[in-house]
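4.2 Preliminary Data

To establish feasibility before requesting continued support, the project team ran the inverse folding procedure on a target of 415 residues. The structure was first converted into the token representation described in Section 3, and no sequence information of any kind was made available to the design step. The complete token record follows.
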């Protein structure tokens, strides 16, 4: 019994101890979260420390990597510079490629403008040139143009009047002569075809002779002409214009008036002539040249007294000549033309009622002419000419003025 009691007490003590241990264990277990939280804080601080240490390490690594990349960066910078240079080159090439068409277009436009400018300059120069030298131009089919020309000439000559018979000199007289002549010419042109132009000229002549102390005025010799261009204009080929004219004897004939006291306004015979002209534009001038020949028809039944004899027939013979020169344009409004003209006459013969004949010496006449053309309006060009005689048979001085007539629709319409 006593043993059972002791065992019970022991068991109770054991249970009590277990209970106390369990209670302490439970209490300890209840306090663990707080401790766990402390440990979490410690762990967070450790993580913060580790995180703080990581930027340092990262900075260190970044520094090292930056240093390592600096070396690589230098090469990469070279590559980037090369890439940038390549990119710039490509941009420049593309810009150049884009600008090249623009430049080409600009150059083409400039060239076209220059060609147009050259063409307009050539057209202007040829217009001014042909307004004065009309035998070098044509007008279009159906067009009409008219001109007025006024020319003044002055002759001064020494005349020797001598008469011989049977080898003896019966009369010798030296006379100083001076003659003034003013010719007003109205010319009309009509384009029959684009390459064929018809012309007609009506002159009004006034003359004064100081030696004879005589003067006269009247109608001169009306003439008709035509200009024909047989070949169309073609690059590299000089233009060729053929011309012909027929001159009447509507003026007073020098072989029918009183040779001692009267003056004539015409040449006294019919004539016909042909010729050819050409021109060449070489910036900034126009070169031109022409050649012509005329034949005078024989006049009979004249009955004009010359001294002791009477002229019955007159054979004019053949005359011809050539001209060459150039025209230069200073600007759109002013141009200058210089030309040299030379003509000759040969084969003339007088036949008297007595059956005698006389052949005068061949004549040669040379003139240097300078013409100034001024555009006074877009459609009107006035030309003034000064001529200087270079031989005895040429006029000593000649002056001329020419301009178109813009009346009754007769406007200047040159090709």
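Position-by-position output of the design step:
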């Amino acid at each position: 019994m006593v043993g059972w009691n002791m065992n019970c007490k022991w068991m109770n003590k054991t249970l009590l101890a277990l209970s106390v241990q369990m209670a302490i264990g439970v209490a300890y277990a209840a306090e663990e979260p707080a401790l766990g939280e402390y440990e979490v804080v410690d762990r967070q601080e450790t993580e913060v420390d580790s995180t703080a240490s990581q930027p340092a390490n990262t900075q260190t690594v970044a520094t090292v990597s930056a240093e390592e990349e600096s070396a690589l960066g230098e090469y990469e910078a070279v590559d980037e510079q090369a890439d940038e240079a390549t990119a710039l080159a490509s941009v420049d090439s593309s810009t150049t490629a884009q600008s090249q068409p623009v430049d080409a277009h600009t150059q083409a436009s400039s060239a076209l403008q220059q060609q147009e400018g050259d063409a307009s300059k050539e057209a202007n120069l040829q217009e001014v040139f042909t307004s004065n030298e009309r035998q070098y131009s044509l007008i279009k089919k159906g067009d009409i143009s008219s001109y007025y020309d006024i020319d003044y000439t002055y002759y001064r000559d020494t005349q020797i009047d001598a008469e011989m018979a049977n080898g003896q000199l019966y009369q010798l007289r030296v006379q100083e002569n001076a003659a003034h002549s003013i010719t007003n010419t109205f010319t009309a042109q009509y384009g029959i075809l684009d390459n064929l132009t018809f012309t007609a000229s009506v002159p009004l002549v006034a003359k004064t002779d100081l030696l004879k102390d005589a003067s006269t005025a009247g109608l001169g010799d009306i003439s008709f002409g035509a200009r024909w261009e047989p070949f169309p204009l073609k690059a590299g080929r000089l233009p060729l214009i053929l011309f012909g004219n027929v001159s009447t004897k509507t003026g007073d004939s020098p072989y029918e008036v009183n040779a001692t006291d009267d003056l004539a306004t015409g040449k006294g015979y019919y004539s016909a002539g042909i010729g050819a002209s050409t021109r060449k534009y070489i910036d900034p001038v126009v070169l031109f040249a022409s050649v012509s020949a005329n034949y005078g028809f024989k006049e009979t039944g004249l009955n004009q007294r010359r001294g002791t004899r009477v002229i019955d027939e007159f054979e004019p013979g053949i005359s011809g000549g050539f001209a060459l020169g150039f025209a230069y344009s200073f600007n759109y409004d002013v141009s200058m033309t210089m030309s040299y003209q030379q003509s000759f006459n040969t084969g003339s013969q007088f036949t008297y009622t007595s059956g005698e004949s006389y052949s005068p010496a061949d004549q040669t006449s040379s003139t240097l002419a300078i013409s100034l053309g001024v555009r006074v309006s877009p459609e009107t060009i006035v030309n003034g000419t000064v001529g200087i005689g270079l031989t005895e048979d040429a006029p000593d001085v000649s002056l001329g003025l020419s301009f178109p007539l813009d009346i009754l629709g007769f406007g200047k319409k040159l090709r």
